TrEMBL record:
PANTHER family: MITOCHONDRIAL IMPORT RECEPTOR SUBUNIT TOM9-2. GO terms for cellular component: mitochondrial outer membrane. Keywords: Membrane, Mitochondrion, Mitochondrion outer membrane, Protein transport, Receptor, Translocation, Transmembrane, Transmembrane helix, Transport. Belongs to the Tom22 family. This is Mitochondrial import receptor subunit TOM9-2-like. The gene is LOC111306138. Residues 1-24 are annotated as: Disordered. CDD domains: TOM22. The chain crosses the membrane at residues 59-76. GO terms for biological process: intracellular protein transport. Its main location: mitochondrion.
Amino acid sequence: MAAQPRRGGISLPERRSASKPDSSIIARITSSPIVSRGKQAACDAAFVSKKLLRSTGKAAWIAGTTFLILVVPLIIEMDREQQFTELELQQASLLGAPPTAPAHP
C-alpha cells in the first residue's frame, strides 16, 4: 500500500535547500551596495558622535573645575569686600561722620 496524504490538518511550506540561492526581494535589498554603504555611514556617524560626546564631556569637566578653582574664590572675596565697605559706611553714619561715596576702581 502506498503512503497516502493525510486529510485535513495543515500543510507546511516547503523548506528551501541550502544549495538553492535565496532570490527573495528582501535578500536582494539587504545585500545591495546601497544598503551596505548606508550601514557603514550609520556606524561612522555613531562612532563620531560618541567621540564628540566624550570630548565634550572632558571639556565640560575642565571648564567646571577651572571655574570652581579660579572664579568662585574671586566672587567670595568680592562679596566680602562689599560687605566690609557697607559695614564701614554704616559705622561712619552712626558716628556722625559725613558719608563718603564708595570708591569703585
